[in-house]
Fold Tryptophan--tRNA ligase.
Amino acid sequence: MAAFKELVFSGVQPTGNLHLGNYLGAIKRFVEMQARDAQCLYCVVDMHAITLWQDPEALRGQIREVTAAFLAAGIDPKKSIVFNQSQVPQHAELAWIFNCVARLGWLNRMTQFKDKAGKDRENASIGLYDYPVLMAADILAYRATHVPVGEDQKQHLELTRDIAQKFNTDFGDSIRAHGHGDGFFPLTEPLIGGPAARVMSLRDGSKKMSKSDPSDNSRINLTDDSDLIAQKVRKAKTDPDALPSETEGLKGRPEADNLVGIFAALSETTREAVLQQYGGAQFSAFKGALVDLAVEKLAPINAEMKRLSADPAHIDAVLADGAERAEAIAAPTLDAVKDIVGFVRRGPRLSAVG
Ligand code: TYM
């Protein structure tokens, strides 16, 4: 691997209904990260997806669809490493070791598990509970320094840092004895930000835009055509007042705040700049401008996703190539981890990990 200053890792679940929140909060930012002096790895996290039941045939299609969305949005699979998680066995291997580092009390605090398990917690899969540990393994198998995500992943990234820190402390002597200095895993930096770190439902400004919302009108899907995008934006819930001219005036107006945030993210500017232009405008006018902007930005992605989806063999080849390159980074990490932990393993010691 060429020596990059940063290693960026992020993942998206292939659970269907990829939406504007996934795009603005994550995928669009993945594309921007490619301009940095960084090796970027973008992973379709299929093992995370099965923590909730997935129909096998549908899952295969969804893995290819997320891959198509990555490529259509501008991720270059030659520059970045694009792959699906299950093709790189080191994720699951490291997750097991981390299961023995992470504490029950830490996982008990995870709010996403509580949300997803709902009232019937006894019936949730163990995988759903263990989800954040696998996520830490995803990131740390590559010793990633930066992880761009939406705001909902903040707690999981804090857990990743806790696991890295505890591993570094628990195995400190062994880490030093194996020549890795004072810490083996980095304390990964979450990159959460921009005007769309938390895109809200178009029907209810107090709820996150989500793949699992039963109302399709609550989200703009990346597969929606221009007419549907226009329809959903026009139907989006608003309040009766005109737009304020300063962000202060968005307080207590979650739906207005959300639409202004979406506009800012799509046009790569800030809420302040949007309000300078549209302060005083009625929602009917603002929504018209938002429809034009959303269609201008999303229609080409939609068209390219369709084009790519017609050739699943090409997508599978991208994933296979990415998996090979990902494994070339993760395998030496796992070899080093096994030595640090005290496992006996076959094969010569790989010395690629410094
Ligand atoms: P997932 O598939 O739920 O979401 C993918 C990315 O989209 C972001 N996101 C949003 N951003 C803004 N507004 C929203 N309404 C919104 N909804 C989703 C998410 O924050 C995420 O960045 N656990 C991760 C997948 C994962 C991962 C990882 C991420 C697995 N391993 C390692 C980073 C690093 C998830 O559930 O993504």
Remarks:
- Residues 157 and 190 are 6 Å apart (CA to CA).
- The chain has a mean pLDDT of 96.
- The radius of gyration is 21 Å.
- The first helix runs from residue 20 to 33.
